[in-house]
């Protein structure tokens, strides 16, 4: 059972992600919460990531219904101005109208604590592969970071916009071993 | 990021990656817009039947997707 091989830091990161989701009153624990939980991890120390900047980027995306900067650009290419749509929705329905996440039917598998978004479960699975690929017999924060970067989505894009890419982090992690 | 815009306008829908990305973003935007508008209609006292009629789907479909939140 791989659960036993999670490092103490990795367990803490998962708990912190739950805490981030609670603070945000999110209905599920998602990859963006994991991202916030992992910001202080050593493998990211060289990238000058400020929590404030990351939070700003996430907030901006949330206001646009979870669309990232890259999504916005892609839609602009189609002639769709997301900012204008957000402005018009907010004018009629109030500020932050699009920010409320679409909630799926919830299944509370773990009793009292918040459910994990399917994409986050995939990320956790992926982190096992990352550890295995590197020949590591434990699962640490560095593997969680790699899995986040590999999975795409908003968390990976926010990291990429700050110059944190899968290739860069993989190099760092492999160098350690 | 401006690079993506250039790519999009230069390649138009020739680059599948850019085109697919836009479709995916549009779908997520649509889901959010639908959720927001349905919620607003419910707050204003619209019935599921009325909402379904406007969306062009069945009452069951709209209730299944957006029900549970009142």
UniProtKB/TrEMBL annotation, chain A:
Residues 3-177 form the Clp R domain. Keywords: Hydrolase, Protease, Repeat. GO terms for molecular function: peptidase activity. Pfam families: Clp_N. GO terms for biological process: proteolysis. InterPro entries: Clp_N_dom_sf (IPR036628), Clp_R_N (IPR004176). Transmembrane segments: none annotated. SUPFAM superfamilies: Double Clp-N motif (SSF81923). This is Clp protease. It comes from Umezawaea endophytica.
UniProtKB/TrEMBL annotation, chain B:
InterPro entries: RNA_pol_sigma_r3/r4-like (IPR013324). SUPFAM superfamilies: Sigma3 and sigma4 domains of RNA polymerase sigma factors. It comes from the Bacteria. Gene3D superfamilies: Homeodomain-like. This is Helix-turn-helix domain-containing protein.
């Amino acid at each position: 059972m791989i659960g036993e091989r999670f490092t103490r830091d990795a367990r803490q990161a998962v708990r912190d992600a739950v805490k981030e989701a609670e603070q945000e009153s999110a209905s599920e624990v998602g990859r963006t919460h994991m991202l916030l939980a992992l910001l202080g991890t050593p493998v990211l120390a060289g990238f000058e990531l400020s929590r404030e900047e990351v939070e700003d980027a996430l907030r901006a995306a949330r206001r646009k219904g979870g669309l990232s900067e890259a999504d916005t650009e892609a839609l602009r290419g189609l002639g769709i101005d997301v900012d204008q749509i957000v402005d018009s929705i907010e004018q009629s329905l109030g500020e932050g109208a699009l920010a409320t996440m679409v909630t799926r039917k919830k299944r509370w598998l773990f009793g009292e604590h918040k459910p994990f978004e399917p994409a986050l479960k995939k990320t956790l699975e992926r982190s096992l592969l990352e550890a295995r690929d590197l020949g590591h017999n434990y699962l640490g924060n560095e593997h969680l970071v790699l899995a986040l970067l590999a999975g795409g989505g908003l968390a990976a894009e926010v990291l990429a916009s700050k110059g944190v890419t899968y290739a860069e982090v993989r190099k760092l992690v492999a160098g350690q071993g | 990021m401006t690079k993506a815009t250039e790519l999009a306008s230069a390649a138009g829908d020739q680059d599948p990656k850019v085109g697919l990305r836009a479709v995916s973003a549009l779908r997520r935007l649509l889901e959010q817009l639908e959720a927001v508008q349905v919620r607003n209609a419910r707050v204003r006292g619209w019935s599921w039947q009325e909402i379904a009629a406007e969306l062009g789907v069945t009452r069951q479909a709209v209730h299944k997707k957006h029900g549970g939140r009142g």
